[in-house]
Amino acid sequence: MVATNLKAEAMKLMETRSAMEAEMNGIIERLCRPGCPGLSGNLVDSEGFPRADIDIPVVRAERHRLAQLRNDHKDITEKINESIQVLHSAWLAPRCSSSSKDTGDDGASDIQNSSMGNAAVLAAHNVVLGDSSSSMDVDVFVSIPFAVVDEIADASPTAEDGLQLGDQIVKFGNVEYEAGENLLQKLASEVQANQGRAIPIVVMRQGAPINLTVTPRAWQGRGLLGCSFRIL
């Protein structure tokens, strides 16, 4: 019963987080349209007067809502991670006890159903379980987006290489989600270390994982990529 409740709770949290991500991406897209101020652009003109070409109250409201969603997204991701760890333990338990000889058919059925249910939750969270060829250990690969592309310049390396606004970064070369790490600094270091070389990346786009490569290189604009990332 506890495992069933935890699974249902985890699925509900994932649905809530997906809705948050959709709303966040919508806000980012609206703020970054041509002529709009983006996520941090000035709301006043060169003379210090409010810009007349944008709806300033709406922009401020959108930015405020985005900040709220970022905080909520961080909190819910932590809760999901805790649930995933418990469900992973539940997944391993029947496998570790599979050599027991006193398990009846009913027990085997319960174990199978429990494992299948946990597998559904893990799959929904982009968790892949793989058996080790030499033991009963299970390797766990948790694909958690840690950054989102919130600005891309026209004709930039990232634009030419296929990265899109709103793409969520799961893996960027050797950089992956790691709690407590300065991920922006790690991204910058990865880019600098691979100038002129293709970097394999994995992004989540509209809920589906996509494999790409981007090559940091000099171009007419600023930086080696011509885009900016926001940590989730």
Automatic annotation (TrEMBL):
Pfam families on file: Nas2_N
Coiled-coil blocks: 59-86
GO annotation terms (biological process): proteasome regulatory particle assembly
Keywords: Chaperone, Coiled coil
Annotated Gene Ontology cellular component terms: cytoplasm; nucleus
Residue ranges annotated for the Nas2 N-terminal domain, each copy included: 11-89
Protein name: Nas2 N-terminal domain-containing protein
Species assigned in the record: Rhizophora mucronata (Asiatic mangrove)
Lineage of source species: Eukaryota, Viridiplantae, Streptophyta, Embryophyta, Tracheophyta
